[in-house]
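Homework help board

Subject: predicted structure for assignment chain

Our instructor gave us this sequence and asked us to write out the predicted structure in token form, then describe one feature. I got the tokens but I'm not sure how to describe them. Can anyone check?
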Amino acid sequence: MYESEIISTDLLLKWSKLLEYDFFRLYSHHLILFAPLAGKCTKKRVSSELPQFRKNIYTKEIIDFILELINTGQKTKIQIVEQYGIPKTTLYKWIYKYNN
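My token output:
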């Protein structure tokens, strides 16, 4: 299982419970970072019974990852903004808030 490229979600859930580690978080972080930017749309939102999720939800782990890239010099602030689609104001707030 360790070397396989594909693992079923129910098996991954069992491993997560057994090891008490959220393996699904790795994938959700990837989706947040690499999701395409939402297009500006003038259509009215249709009400739905399904829950509505905010797109820009950044966890502490993602913020730490981004700040580590900047602090180690692996990426510049401009590269972070362009590659991950994080607004400049948000990035500068993180730097001010978490780099003290």
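Reply (TA_rk): Your tokens look well-formed. For the description, you could write something like this. The chain is about 55% helix and 0% strand. That's the kind of observation they're looking for.
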